[in-house]
Amino acid sequence: MNTFFDITDRTQLRSLLLSLDPDAVPLWGKMKPRQMVEHLVDQVEWTNGKKILTCDRPAEQAYKGKMQMVYTDLEIPKNVFLEKLPEHYKYADIPAAVNQLMAELDAFDQYFKEPGATAIHGGFGPMNHQEWLIWHGKHFTHHLKQFGLI
Length: 150
Known about the structure:
The protein is mainly alpha-helical. 46% of the residues lie in helices and 4% in strands. The chain has a single domain (10-146), classed as Four Helix Bundle (Hemerythrin (Met), subunit A). The protein has a two-stranded antiparallel sheet.
């Protein structure tokens, strides 16, 4: 059974990401280290109420996708390319992006303190806090492995 990074362990997450060499070459994919951290910031913003996503898949397909990817130990495949990489960085450097990621994760925690809160996943539809913890864990694991951090 696969184990995935626990995104609630913010001390370890911060430490791992701050150890990232800005010139590191990924083991797969085209992302640069800062792009990866900024990508994680962006993805968490979709789950903390700052950005609102829609799911255009039929509910039955979204549910099946969620059951397959959230409720199993399947890993996110290498070299999945779902969006164009941004041309410019949003944050000054990796430490600034890591600090922003930590702030967005704090906002994620606050957002899900509201009873019954959900956030939409573009492919899986509405997901609750526990589902997002699992999915973010898989997603963070994918990128931490991409740069050999775990």
